[in-house]
Fold:
Amino acid sequence: MPEATKPTETPLVVAESLVKRYGELAAVDGISFSIAPGEVVGFLGPNGAGKTTTIRMLSCNSPRTGGRLEVFGLDVALHPREIKGQLGVVPQDNNYDPDLSVIENLLLYARYFGIPARTARQRATELLEFVHLTDKAGEQVDELSGGMKRRLILARGLINTPRLLVLDEPTTGLDPQARRLIWERLRELRQRGVTIIITTHYMDEAEQICDRLLIMDNGKVIATGSPQSLISEHAGDEARNRPRGRRGRRSRNRAGRMPFPEARGQVRDIRIRLPGRARAHPQAGAADVVQRAAGNA
Structure:
């Protein structure tokens, strides 16, 4: 398992005026940020905001068009092999090998990093226990549920004991219980000091996991801060001033519910009436924060 890292002032990731163009389209348009060791940073925004493109450049899978991008103090264009050897990646898609069993997928992936067979098997066993898949080790991957497949991909991303774990929308399409299981594993990694970058559409997910958020829209970073500060600044006042119904609970309006969990007192979603719409989309929390942040940018 990845070991805890003590935060230092030397960032693990540095981006300055980072640009990615596809012809005339600027998918990433001059963004700058840094990520310190032990920090959990989320990229939040709608589809097409530039989140995945940023992750692909950071993971040495897509060349940048302009600007500066360094990971572990190394230029991604000059040292991709060294960077990838210390990087754990959980992509959007479950790109496992369907012809292999659960543990065989981990053992095969370990070979790409030159991990000795005995060490690889020990790590694979530990990781399957970590993601609660020990009893599924010998099963074919296609027999797993969607949530189990995502946990397997998370375990695979940790097989090389990475210094930095990158997750691209790790819970999209999962049911609430499966999402919570992924969150629990990520929170445990966070407690161990693992540096994590995550892209997500969901403000509730970002709030559960992240220390800091970068909100992206149209290829730009339009706001940054802690999840609570961004909620308070861009959506909190209207959300928290919602009148209570007859039974003392926060009432609902046509824009949807305001789920303030009574036990934890945390904002899990934000649903506010959007201009020109009769009802907000069920996952409109992040989109609304993005919209409000863009209006203030």
